[in-house]
Amino acid sequence: MNQQQNARLRNAGFATFFFSGICAISAGVVVSLLQEEYGFAYGMTGTLLSLMSVGNLLAGLLIGMLPSVLGMKPSVLLLTIGYAAGYAIMGLTGAEILLALAFFMVGIAKGSVINTCTILVSDNSADRTRGMNLMHSCYACGALLCPFVIAAAAKVSTALAVFLLAALGLVLWLVYAFTPLTGGKAKNAQEKQAIDWSFLRSARFWMLTGLLFFQNAAEQSVNGWMVTYFKGSGIISGALAAYTVTVMWGATLVARLLIAFVFPFKQPRKAMVVMGVSCTIFYILLVQARSQGAAIVLLFAFAFAMAGMNPTAVASAGRMTSVTSMGIMLPVAASGAILMPWVIGVVAEGAGLDAGMMTNIIPCVGLVLFAILVARLPEE
Question: With a cut of 70, which residues of the chain have pLDDT below it?
Fold first, then answer.
């Protein structure tokens, strides 16, 4: 494949991951807007967010299997229309069963975009670590914009905010529609059998999956619970607490751009150990913080240390990044993001929010252990 084609596929990955950053991160804001609008219970809010995570998980499996039946492009187009369709449904109705379907569809789109972009960028980059960090920087840019975009549109009406997201989802879908995505469809029974499952016997594959499981668990817990924790403990005032999301994504963006352009990792696997240890130290200090200034600085430091972990780990998979392997690695890893925020909630109900937040030290330590295991693997 020529360099022009490589660049085109890579850029399609960057562009769609940027839009996905806006669409995926907005779901948390949209669910609170819908709750205000229709007045459903907190339990329903939790259910909608869980359904989105389930869709995200399922998407990994679907995008791993569908291409051998439908071909790559029809599969991607079928699964990624979920952003446009899901947000459109949210703008049209408050019926709980339809909202449940809508969040599930948004989750499927989110998961499908992650897998598709990972393959587009990883397979078409000369320097994988740089490519993956750049791709995740695009997502962070979208995530940074999201609170401002939604807040501006929601001032007019909730419906305008969700229809705006549906429109962005449609733009994302059109980028894929005009991108030459090839491969996937199996010609005959032999080829269907010929999906390469050898990665399942690879220690590297499972160690990287374990590392990503703990990374997702630790990061998503901070993403999901930090605003509630800061508000509840009175460390950061209510209005300001909402913008801690911006602090996190700002730190994430700065770190990923530095890794991609300024300080590329000479030894990515040793770098992951350093990042893991740093995350753990900053998190322990963060839950001890008692002043607003310290809390914001430590949150920035935690997000900064965590930022390179996911893209660098996926890049370390090297030759194993196929549709099928990513279809198993990313959903298994994403289950950490479903499990840990729930554990914090259970502990917080029984023993208080401080104790709940302390439990997130467990995935931080898991992250360090797996990073050390990965660093000790022989080079491939």
Answer: 1, 41-43, 46, 183-195, 238-242, 318-321, 380
Residue entry with tokens 């950490």: 336
The residue among 119, 10, 101 whose CA lies nearest residue 63 is: 119
- Determine whether 135 is exposed, middle or buried from the number of CB atoms within 10 Å of its CB (0-12, 13-18, 19+): buried
- For residues 238 and 240, what is the distance between their CA atoms, to the nearest angstrom? 6
Domain ranges within the chain, ordered by starting residue: 3-193, 198-375
CA gyration radius for the chain? 20
Q: What b/e readout covers 247-277, taking b as 16+ CB neighbours within 10 angstroms?
A: bbbbbbbbbbbbbbeeeebeebbebbbbbbb
**Interatomic CA distance for residues 289 and 312, integer angstroms:** 29
pLDDT digits (tens, 9 = 90+) for 111-138: 999 889 988 888 888 888 888 889 989 9
Q: Are 132 and 119 in contact (CB under 8 A)?
A: no
Predicted confidence at residue 187, as pLDDT, reads 47
Domains 3-193 and 198-375 are alike in CATH topology:
yes
The phi and psi torsions of 232 (rounded to 5 degrees) equal: -65, -35
Q: What is the CATH number of domain 198-375?
A: 1.20.1250.20
One CATH from 1.20.1250.20, 1.10.10.10, 3.90.1150.10, 1.10.1040.10 for 3-193: 1.20.1250.20
Instruction: Give first-to-last CA distance, the chain, whole Å.
Output: 24
Residue type, 24: A
At residue 51, the pLDDT reads 83
What's this model's pTM, rounded to 2 decimal places? 0.77
